[in-house]
Amino acid sequence: MVDIAVLGYGTVGSGVVELLDKNKDIVRNNAGEEINVKYILDIKDFENDKYKDKLVKNFDIILNDKDIKIVAEVIGGVTVAYEYTKRLLEAGKNVVTSNKELVASHGKKLLEIAKKHNVKYLFEASVGGGIPIIHPLLQCLEANNIQSIVGIMNGTTNYILTQMIEKNMSFDKALSQAKELGYAEANPDADIKGYDTCRKICILASIAYGEYINPDSISVKGIENLTLEEVKKAEEKGYVVKLIGYANKKSEAEIEVFVSPCAIKKDSPLANVNDVYNAILVTGDMVGDTMYYGKGAGKFPTASAVCSDIIECVNLKTTREINLRESRIMINKPELKVLEGTDLPILEE
Amino acid sequence: MVDIAVLGYGTVGSGVVELLDKNKDIVRNNAGEEINVKYILDIKDFENDKYKDKLVKNFDIILNDKDIKIVAEVIGGVTVAYEYTKRLLEAGKNVVTSNKELVASHGKKLLEIAKKHNVKYLFEASVGGGIPIIHPLLQCLEANNIQSIVGIMNGTTNYILTQMIEKNMSFDKALSQAKELGYAEANPDADIKGYDTCRKICILASIAYGEYINPDSISVKGIENLTLEEVKKAEEKGYVVKLIGYANKKSEAEIEVFVSPCAIKKDSPLANVNDVYNAILVTGDMVGDTMYYGKGAGKFPTASAVCSDIIECVNLKTTREINLRESRIMINKPELKVLEGTDLPILEE
Predict the structure, then answer these.
(1) Domain residue spans in chain A?
(2) What is the pLDDT of residue B243?
(3) Bridge-partner residues for A100, per DSSP?
(4) What distance in Å separates residue A288's CA from the closest CA in chain B?
(5) Which of B132, B292, B294 sits opposite A288 (nearest CB)?
(6) Fold held by A134-295+327-347
């Protein structure tokens, strides 16, 4: 039996705990051992919770427990989560996470600490929720020079855009509806302003090109000022509008990365990705176009990816090492044609 | 430096050799060592070939060379390829392959031999060409009970169907055109009669359910008798016709598996997969729907997957063990509603 700890008992944290309970048999079978959640760390009280006996408020209990070799960090944010992750890795514990903000901003440093202490820092859940994307990039496409990564990586904005496109709904009305349905947070800025997509494309591009790409260094435009007129103009000309995270290796010396609502031809595989679904198109020099599609967020889809990383730690699988160079090459916004009468760059996919 | 051998110097074999040469740097970087093709086995002569110094005709040279720890079997078929694979595994060599026919018919036995001799038998390239699908199923979705796998897994037939749907072309004419373009073989039976799709869905279903599913045990219908009238009738009712490999876990005691042209709603993610592209929709109890899309065949896409398996052998990554039970449960054809006026089962995806 392997004891693990879960840091943060919000949506994803409770998903991880419930998944490991509900799918105990299949997880035991695939990990080769039973996985036991020994601790759940949260500052809140959960009086009537099924797993309340596991709840602790003191991080040091987990840090100092030698039985804990694997910790899932699903707190989110870059303050406490960074501090805890750093200390856990330094204490020789493997850490898995869904925290894209932390991976995008401090992933390079944390991977170096993990390497130094001979443990893993895994983050399959940080991009695309439950969609396998980090492992395919690292393992299955490793014989390719990755040319480009173009994706719809944020479910909230894709839901809003789908409403605008299919139901002629204004941005404000679609956002209200997304909030009502639980698809958008009370403060939706990280989603609608494109920051979330920015973190994700930076994580993927860093892995694909072996260069650390700082999310602060790229051009980001969200959908908060997109008008129904622009959406309709795109429609008339055979395009749909999607919020795109884009990375393209222009040469050995230049990578183009940006986030923006873009006009996509209706027959592109990305054009039919609707509602809260995500899809990421990865083009390699040998394999050509490949696409990965699924629910990019949510309790159990995200828990699915966190738990596959936990199982990877249990199996002691040799994970391909990620060594990121400090970015030495130019990171630019691509020069794309703009759809007439709008501000929308046209993606020729 | 790691010495490897390639068995079979046809389309895929030459793709593997060329990829390892062309992408030498990235392969060395990701494998941690240079990969050197020491031998290429083929009975034919290749007088003016760039790699003719590596060509051998005697299998025993490879079998008896202790430096060869990894062999790519891309001969195809189940006779010579089976014999060679068996002897290589028994001699303690890792084998990677794109040979779906062999994996579908003798994969269980070969996995057992590989396990006994502590080597790997890897076959990412056997389904979906270069599309990552075996690894995502085995590794990334391992915290899920896989419910269903539904896919377009044959590029030849998907090309023919796309011509029939979009250009009103008859089956015979579309087949001729596919032959001219090199998308269909001189004898296209394995593709158009659905045998190729059958092998692939059996491989995926075996992995997903841990049960060996014999390709001879499932209902297979190809597209060779599909008429333009049926295609049009589907179109009128909002459907497109696709050749589908289908596996669904109905209960702990019953799996439904079949191959047939099916009617698919136009807004399904599978409906917009055209030409020689493949796409496989995998549904897990936690992750929900995920889809994997790309070129399902071809020289370099397939070589991309073969080479990622070679790199996995070089890295000595711990691959998740596949243990297949001899099928104890019922394998049935699903009872699906048929589209009025046609023979096409309707897929509610």
Answers:
(1) 2-122, 134-295+327-347
(2) 96
(3) none
(4) 7
(5) B294
(6) Dihydrodipicolinate Reductase; domain 2 (3.30.360)
Interchain contact, A304 vs B144, CB within 8 Å = yes
Instruction: Return the beta strands (E) in chain A as ranges.
Output: 2-7, 35-41, 55-56, 68-73, 94-97, 121-122, 146-152, 211-212, 219-220, 239-251, 254-265, 277-284, 288-295, 325-326, 330-332, 346-347
Cβ-Cβ contacts under 8 Å, A14 against chain B: none
How many angstroms away from the CA of B158 is the closest CA of chain A? 16
Q: What is the pLDDT along chain A (349 residues), one digit of tens a residue?
A: 999 999 999 999 999 999 999 999 999 998 989 999 999 999 999 999 999 999 999 999 999 999 999 999 999 999 999 999 999 999 999 999 999 999 999 999 999 999 999 999 999 999 999 999 999 999 999 999 999 999 999 999 999 999 999 999 999 999 999 999 988 988 999 999 999 999 999 999 999 998 889 999 899 999 999 999 999 999 998 999 999 999 999 888 888 999 999 999 888 889 999 999 999 999 999 999 999 999 988 999 999 999 999 999 998 765 556 666 665 667 677 888 888 877 788 887 5
Percent helix, percent strand, percent coil in chain A, to nearest 5: 40, 25, 35
Which of B209, B287, B307 is most worth mutating to test chain A (most A CB atoms within 10 A of its CB)?
B287
Are residues A311 and B143, on separate chains, in Cβ contact within 8 Å? yes
The set of catalytic residues of A is 200
Per the CB < 8 A criterion, the answer to whether A255 and A248 are in contact is: yes
**Contact of A42 with A61, CB cutoff 8 Å:** no
- The residue in chain A having the minimum alpha-carbon distance to the alpha carbon of residue B322 is A30
B242 noted as active-site residue? no
Task: Report the residue of chain A nearest B209, measured CA to CA.
Answer: A26
Confirm if B254 and B329 have CB atoms less than 8 A apart: yes
Q: Is the ipTM of this complex over 0.95?
A: no
Q: DSSP secondary structure string, B188-232?
A: -HHHHTSHHHHHHHHHHHHHHHTEE--GGGSEE--STT--HHHHH
CATH code given to domain A2-122? 3.40.50.720
Q: Which of A6, A290, A306, A349 to mutate to test the interface with B (most CBs of B within 10 A)?
A: A290
Tell me which residue in A19, A141, A319 faces B308 most closely, judged by beta carbons: A141
Whole-angstrom distance, CA of residue A66 vs CA of residue A52: 22
Beta strand pairing call for B94-97 and B68-73: parallel
Question: Check: CATH 3.30.43.10 for B139-295+327-347?
Answer: no
